[in-house]
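Q: Convert this sequence to structure tokens.
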Amino acid sequence: MEAAQEALKREAFRLAVVNTLERRLFYIPSFKIYRGVAGLYDYGPPGCAVKANVLAFWRKHFVREESMLEVDCPCVTPEVVLKASGHVDKFTDLMVKDEKTGTCYRADHLLKDFCKEKLEKDTKLDAEKVKEIKHILAVLDDLSAEELGAKIKEYGITAPDTKNPLSDPYPFNLMFQTSIGPSGLTPGYMRPETAQGIFVNFKDLYYYNGNKLPFAAAQIGQAFRNEISPRQGLLRVREFTLAEIEHFVDPEDKSHPKFSEVSELEFLMFPREDQVSGQQARRIAIGKAVSQGIVNNETLGYFIGRVYLFLTLLGIDKDRLRFRQHLANEMAHYAADCWDAEIECSYGWIECVGIADRSAYDLGAHTDKSGVPLVAAEKFAEPKEVEKLVIAPVKKEIGLAFKGNQKMVLEALEAMGEKEAMEMKSSLETKGEAQLHICTLDKIVSIKKNMVSISKEKKKEHQRVFTPSVIEPSFGIGRIIYCLYEHSFYTRASKDGDEQLNVFRFPPLVAPINCTVFPLVQNHEYEEVAKKIAKSLTAVGISYKIDITGTSIGKRYARTDELGVPFAITVDSTTSVTVRERDSKEQIRVNVEEVASLIKEVTDGVSTWNDVLRKYPTHH
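A:
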């Protein structure tokens, strides 16, 4: 019963937040006059301003702080790129269809909703059933199409809108397909992430960076996912802004020179072992997490610490933020370690940032597909003697045997790794032939002994050539902003106590407008002073809004509190003004000449409101 009341409370809170956001035009459904399209939203003026401020702070906190190389790549991506990255084959969700109307639903969402509702509303559940349902929720991401289908049948889950029977789950690729150029012969997709644009430019970026590692590249841009049944407002949409960092590092040295700057930070972490054994997230210092091997390496730990600082400085509540480690079944086979920054809101814990050590997978995949080596080199002070694999194809014999496919066979032979090459050598010596899979032809061919010689030779090397590992923090900007809206929202009684007023407690850093300027009453002198202040605010780069409507000052305060404006300047004389702080409602008196520089100081974080209170006389 308590769980049901808690759920109702959360829903009422969410409704209050969303109504305020839509009424004040932070965001609205796109194409509203045509009844909108699920999963598409427009940001209105305050929403645009909040988003611009979040992105400006992201650039300052990450790109400038770490001297990252920022790029901007196209949204339309040729199929070959996404084939290499694995998106064409694997970027799918399991879908079920209403067998009568054809309406589509995400299979895991239906099962998740059913389980959550059972736990919240079914008072007759015994302990065994509760345990079973909780287990399903824990392993939901790991269920195959068959297992999902079996659970949906077992629980008698039907289409939510019509109660009609559902089809068996089947995979649906989430990318929007298109064709590039009028002929339709070059297939492409709208990118599902921005990362691939960085990977394919690695060679040029490495050269631009003076052929030195480590370095990071960053990109902010739109990504597209054709969600099966989008819901949860800004949290699950079909077009969204991603901010992604690809930090390239030597796989043999993942230490970070600035790790000591974050190592003392302590925050909620949820390691794999704790999840599996049914424990709660606990506070761990990131330095300890790395030294104990909970987090794989220093560079990954450094970024987890920096992400924590970024989110909490934006205004995310540190008690409702945790870093959850991916379970073994969630992780891609090539990943060394993955953590999600999850923020708790009325929808539960929402993944907003993914921080992954992706090893050398991405650069390796694009090297294989494009034939362009995306590698780095470490120069040795003294030459080293190493044993090198030498693969020497006999071009004449291969040409005779494979004719037009000669180039593909040569490339495949030269691309062999040591293990594969030594297996081929032994097969050629014992059987006189060996099988080789040619990716570009997608077939297996027979290689004879006279076509290639494979040996190991001792060589002196002046450098070590390797494929860098990549550590990738990936930020869902819309999700972060929505959680920030919820974490910043509260209500308080009006002065008369007859109504509840909405307030967003945005830090000045992200507030859509830094301050408002009100002439207390409508008179020419005060309006001139207000214009003078507005001019000086513009000069120091502070956003403001002038309100010269004759409505009561209380109503004007309430209007701007609802937009999350931190400071209100009220012109009530020609020489000095009052400055009111949104959350405490405290006011100080300041000379007209000083007010712009004061607001600038507090907005930029040079001073706090408490510093200001000590310096200026309070006004009652």
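The mean pLDDT is 91.
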